[in-house]
Every structure is written in structure tokens, then in C-alpha cells.
Amino acid sequence: MDDEGEPLSGRDRAAGFAVAWLREGVEVRWPLGNVVEVAFEEVVPVREFPSYRGQRHFPGLYWAATMLRHVGFESWLERDHAISMDFDPCVAGFSSQPFWLFWTSAEGGRLSHAPDYFARRADGSAVVVDCRPEGRRKPRDLAKFAGTQAACEAVGWDYRLVGEIDRVRVANLRWLAGFRHPRFGGAGLTEAVEAAFAVPGPLVGQAAQVGDPIRVLPVVFHLLWCGRLGTDLSRPLGDYSLVCRVEG
Predict the structure, then answer these.
(1) Cα-Cα-Cα-Cα dihedral sign, residues 90, 165, 79, 217
(2) Which of 78, 135, 194, 211 could cross-link with 73 by S-S, CB 3.0 to 4.6 Å?
(3) Is residue 70 a part of any domain in this protein?
(4) Is residue 86 part of a domain?
(5) Same domain assignment for residues 35 and 120
(6) pTM of the shown model
(7) Average pLDDT in the 207-232 region?
């Protein structure tokens, strides 16, 4: 609210923030209120992902089937959330370390933060994601996360501070991600596999009705990844997991 108690508009709340990102290798810096239409889901990272002997984190590149390109991560936690976003049918695209956010704290200190991910949903809405285990959220980090959330709210983006994903679910997603590439959807088996699971049945037994499981199961896993087949991912994926065709 302002001094007279009136609620601040989104533009007023965004006035204290600036955003910097890379465009064709050159840094661009604009006021937060002017960047709502920028396709941050397509930008390159604003900083590198260092790798050195003895580091505690495990950086790398994840190939996202959603965009058919690599996305960087700085830890296995970030990688797991990249897999989760890639699996989510509501996510149309996402990028890592998309921009720097700059602002001044209430105490007058200058703060900056590069969120872990920016994701664009299929409906056009956006979400900014920071990944940090609950036990590793220090006061200075929480201040930056709070500032980032305030900035997101000012421009109508959602903000999520996420930690560890359920162990069973993430283990299932890691496995299915191994079959995310479109090449696993070929071999002329897609229609036959979907037809076999029109009636729910056990994963391996039903796949064996189509043909040699060694040939058929990769297609099953690919269709599970794509959401054309469904199963309960809150339980460990195994031979007897109940799998069914997803209508529509």
C-alpha cells in the first residue's frame, strides 16, 4: 500500500526491480514492468554452470523433450525438477538461470538473484522456480526468495520455491525420462501398444501380448512419458504396475 493506504498497482510494485538477460550474447537490462512479454522460456542462462574438483553439487545438461534442446542444471535436485517440468503436459517450455533480478531491500541493501527456472505454461501463464532443500534455506537466501516472489506477483507470474520431490515419484520419472526421446515412439508399435492397454492390465504381461517385451517395453515407457498411457507414479514402477490407455 502507499502512504495513504491505497493498494499499489502491479506497475507500482514492479518499479523497484530491474531484470537483466542475454540476447544474442549481449546483456539487456530493463525495468521489471517492461519484460512481461519477453519469452524467457527461450533465453540462454545468464551465468555458467561451473564444474571443478571437490564441488558438492553436480552440474550438467538435461535434454528436454518439450523443447528438443538442452537445459542446464546445477544440482541433482534441479535436474529432478527439470525432469518433472519436462514431464508436465501443462508446461510448453522452460529455461534455466533465465535472468538476473535486481532490487533494493527495505534496509537499503542492494540484492540480486538469478532464479533456477522460468517456465511457460501451455495457457500462456508463467512460473518462476527456485530449487532449494528445506534444510539449506539460509536467512539471506530466504530474503532473496521473498524478493523474487514479490517481483513475480507484481507482473502476474507464479513463483514456486521447491525442495525434494517424493522419492518414489522422482525415481519413476527418472526411469521414464530415459525413454523421452521421440525415437522410442516409433517401430510401428504405437497403435498396437495403445490398443493393448485399452483395458487396464499389468505392464509387462500386457506388453508381451503385443510382441517381444524387449522391443515393446521401450514404446510402453515412451507412451507413459508422453501421457498417452497412464499409471500410478506414487508407487514403484514394476512388472505388475497397472497401466491403461489415456483417452483423449
Answers:
(1) negative
(2) 78
(3) yes
(4) yes
(5) yes
(6) 0.91
(7) 96
- What domain range is 195 assigned to? 167-245
**Could you give the angle at which helices 213-226 and 167-177 cross, rounded to 10 degrees?**
120
User: What is the Cα–Cα distance from 110 to 142, expressed in whole angstroms?
Assistant: 15
Taking 70 as the threshold, does the pLDDT of residue 55 lie above it?
A: no
Cβ–Cβ < 8 Å for 179, 225: yes
* Listed residues 162, 184, 217: the one ending a domain: 162
Residue range 110-167, pLDDT digits in tens: 999 999 999 999 999 999 999 999 988 999 999 999 999 999 999 999 999 999 999 9
Same domain for 138 and 35, yes or no, is yes
HSE-CB at 189 with a 13 A cutoff on CA atoms is: 25
On whether residue 5 sits in a domain, the answer given is no
**How many structural domains compose the chain?**
2
Domain boundary among 117, 142, 162: 162
C-alpha cell recorded at residue 108: 537499503
Long-range contacts of 33-38 (CB under 8 A, 24+ apart): 33/154, 33/155, 35/99, 35/155, 36/155, 36/156
Residue 4 included in any domain:
no
Residue carrying C-alpha cell 535436485: 77
Instruction: Look up residue 69 and give its three cell numbers.
Output: 534442446
